[in-house]
Amino acid sequence: MDQVKAMRVFTRVIDEGSLAGAARALDLAPAVVTRLVADLEEHLGVRLLNRTTRRLSLTDVGESYLERCRRILSDIEEAEALATAAVTEPRGNLRVLMPPAIAVHQLARHLARFHAMYPLVSLELVASGPVDTLDDSFDITVISTRIPLQGEFIAKRLARTEVILCAAPDYLARRGRPQHPSELKLHDMVLPPIHELSRGVTFERCGADGEPAESFFTIPSRPVMTTSSVDTKYACALHGVGVAGLPSFVVGDALMEGALERVLPEWRIYSYSLWAAMPTRKFVPARTRAFLDFLIEVFGGEDDDPWLAAAGCPTIAARKSAATRASAARANASSEPSAVPAAGATAAEADASTAVPASAASAG
């Protein structure tokens, strides 16, 4: 028995949730996957999986063994990467986890360019729901969060995205354009599930100097529709169902094209920080580094909202914040030499000037 191969198959069975799924992912016959897992269990003298007609689940021993398997396979991959780093171009399978709305509205449009740049990299993208922390079974996790990151991993900032109110121009022409958050009770609202808003929402308006000038607290009630699906809210807004709260990276194009109009543009609700995170490893495969750099290029890598800026409707506070950071960056550039990681540096050393340890990273 090839024990390393069996360990790889075992971890993929768990990642895919089934023997058949692992067989498809690894391009192996289902019988081969079943035999390798059985051989591994026989070799160890323990049962790793509980099998029923409907699902697989880990035994207690299986859970402990899976954790060790991941570490061992990671060490093997790092050793291979170290041995071939000087001559290997990005290649192989890259596992990425991200929220579905980011995959649909931002990543998909850029993947053809990434494939043209790195044709030997095969992307395995999982985008099944919200992602607010690292999953170390993936090479890269794209995180969207309102709170500081927690954990021992490397995180690089991609961008900041504001949640804004918007509606179709024909809806606003029919129902009027609210000038104050208190007027929203007169409008049809498309909102997240009510339990997510049970603590209420605070609107904040900033003055010309970027400082808070007024706040308004409300607990939304009786919306025309609630849904946890970002794309459903987006479709409803486009088709004139009502006013929806959506991330700027979803509605940026629609704002520029005039299909949607920002509602209460001088008022802020809240924002999310977007991060690209990866497990702390001494050596990072070339394919992982290539995709991480690509994400930073695509999103900008700054603590700003590029989508509202491109659409020409950033809030006053955001405009002031961006101007302040730009001024500080120009001052630093003129007074400090650029830091360039030394050739052959480890991943941790190479990331030192740009990466943020998760325990210190803040969504701001």
Explain this structure.
With 364 residues, the protein is α/β, with parallel strands linked by helices. It contains 13 helices and 15 strands. The protein has helices at 3-16, 19-26, 30-44, 60-84, 100-107, 111-117, 169-175, 230-238, 248-257, 286-299, 306-311, 316-335, 347-350, and strands at 49-51, 56-58, 92-97, 121-126, 140-145, 153-167, 189-191, 201-206, 212-218, 225-226, 243-247, 261-263, 267-268, 270-279, 356-357. A hairpin with a 4-residue loop joins strand 1 (49-51) and strand 2.
Q: What distinguishing features does this structure have?
A:
single chain; 364 residues; alpha/beta; 10-stranded mixed beta sheet; 3-stranded antiparallel beta sheet; 22% strand
Low-pLDDT segments, ≥5 res? 335-357, 359-364
Shape designation: elongated
Q: Strand-residue fraction?
A: 15-25%
Enumerate how many helices there are, as a single number: 13
Assembly annotation: single chain
Write the layout of secondary structure elements.
Blueprint: H1 3-16, H2 19-26, H3 30-44, E1 49-51, E2 56-58, H4 60-84, E3 92-97, H5 100-107, H6 111-117, E4 121-126, E5 140-145, E6 153-167, H7 169-175, E7 189-191, E8 201-206, E9 212-218, E10 225-226, H8 230-238, E11 243-247, H9 248-257, E12 261-263, E13 267-268, E14 270-279, H10 286-299, H11 306-311, H12 316-335, H13 347-350, E15 356-357
Parallel strand pairs: 3-4, 3-5, 7-10, 7-11
Antiparallel strand pairs: 1-2, 5-14, 6-11, 6-12, 6-14, 6-15, 8-9, 8-13
Helix pairs in contact: 1-2, 1-3, 1-4, 2-3
